[in-house]
From TrEMBL:
Pfam family for this entry, one: Glyoxalase_4
InterPro entries membership: Glyas_Bleomycin-R_OHBP_Dase, MMCE/EMCE_epimerase, VOC_core
Source organism phylogeny: Bacteria, Bacillati, Actinomycetota, Actinomycetes, Geodermatophilales
Protein name: VOC family protein
Domain VOC: 6-144
Length: 146
């Protein structure tokens, strides 16, 4: 018996909420809402007393699984590893299917975001690349070609 009903969202804690939001909006996600959360609920769930976060919820155009970006107002954020590679333990990447991989990569490059490696092709079915976004977030972009 499964306890999971559906995959709701992925959460990422960031320092610059506006910059990271703009990055994902540039990829085509839409802002669903923005709010502050604090109080007993947040303190209990995250285990950090007297915490306060600002949250932006983003959704893909197809209405699928959402992305939650959170910035801690208090306490201060703890730095992560901004140059993490794919073999570092932890959340590896957030993945999106795109219509035109090269156009997406080129557009992100105009904003200063580059490839982690290169554009690869898997069994004549997918073209895929990792792009390192703001704060070291790795985004996997994939285009179905077959």
């Amino acid at each position: 018996m499964s306890h999971v009903r559906r995959f709701d969202h992925v959460g990422i804690t960031v320092a610059d909420l506006d910059a990271v939001t703009a990055f994902f909006v540039g990829l085509g996600l839409e802002v669903e809402g923005r709010t502050f959360v604090e109080g007993e609920f947040l303190d209990t769930v995250c285990g950090i007393p007297d915490s306060r976060t600002e949250i932006v919820m983003l959704r893909p155009p197809d209405g699928g699984t959402r992305l939650e970006l959170a910035r801690f107002v208090r306490p201060d954020s703890v730095p992560g590893s901004p140059a993490a590679m794919a073999n570092e333990l932890g959340l590896r990447n957030v993945a999106f299917e795109v219509d035109d991989l090269q156009a997406a990569v080129d557009r992100l490059a105009t904003d200063g975001y580059g490839l982690v490696g290169g554009i690869g092709e898997y069994e004549h079915v997918w073209r895929m690349a990792y792009v390192r976004g703001p704060e070291g977030i790795i985004v996997s972009l994939a285009e179905r070609i077959g």
